[in-house]
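Weekly puzzle thread! Below is a chain. First person to post its structure in token form gets bragging rights.
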Amino acid sequence: MVARRKVAVVGAALSDCGRVDDATPYALHAQAARRALADAGLDRTLVDGFASAGLGTLAPVEVAAYLGLRPTWVDSTSVGGSTWEVMAAHAADAIAAGHARAVLLVYGSTARADVRAGRRTGTLSFGTRGPLQFEVPYGHTLIAKYAMAARRHMIEYGTTIEQLAEVAVQARANAALNPEAMFRTPVTVDEVLAGPMIADPFTKLHCCVRSDGGAAVLLVAEEYVRDCRTSPVWVLGAGECVSHAAMSDWPDFTVSPAAVSGRLAFERAGVRPSEIDVAEIYDAFTYMTLVTLEDLGFCAKGEGGSFVEKGRLRVEGGELPVNTDGGGLSAQHPGMRGLLLLVEAVRQLRGECGQRQVRRGDGTLPRLAVASGTGGWFCSSGTVVLGAG
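Winning reply:
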């Protein structure tokens, strides 16, 4: 039996993010890819694996061609916001098995600019085919699905709207430390509650921002780490799970597929949730953060409300800094945010985050991070545990 190689993230970068009115999605892909390769200090000729989703008819073919790559391993898995954590898991497996030596994950979107220019409208629904045909006629929009799940948690466990608002407040506090965040002005619980209603119980600040932007991550086999200019961040374990297609198929609105992907990732990494120093969690809505914290094992089911209301998610003074860049609620959310979670986790473990840098109790840099993405309406989840080199 051939020994499996260790796999490290050696390049991580964002493209220009936020308000980008003068770039195409392809340009943002290329910008992020160039920056990730430069971050690693490696030449693109080493890249023989490529993963992309969400752009073009044949995403990995079209984007790879635009980047001038001819990969011999590709992945186009598309499961919404969790796509990039799932792709990272697949890439790590491929590298470990010797099927690739260096895999580049890339994403780019002009979601905000397209709406602004009238090239598209806001995403209210994913379509009307398949199982969705039984929900769309009743006005069951994407945000309504998340709002209904949040209301179920409130009824089941007594979670309050003020507790959900705390997620937005603490995300904004973290964003205030990030010069690349779109919104940095602190907000209060009262301000969150006073905003315009979007889908009961979510007011505007319970919902993610709409931005432009992209990201790229480069994973390599262990023998290439010595050639890199950055410290490696090791992929310790990963898990993935798909749950339901229609809300009527979802057994319990208070349990996300992260309950499975997280358990698998932690088991494979050989670590416990209590050992994690920093968590990057998909947060299209405040409820996503709260329920994912429960399902990853950072608190018991039903205790997410009390967990978040005590300031635990803050970079400054928090017991478990979460979404340290400000997350999708305040920093950036360019359509599918999952790859940005990996970039921020890597940067935190390498100590590159400036004012928002997380420190452990003894003043040292974090050693373990988790990135957990969610797709659709809690339909899919991918979780990756990372360790500092």
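Puzzle host: Confirmed. Bonus trivia for everyone else. Residues 25-40 form the longest helix (16 residues).
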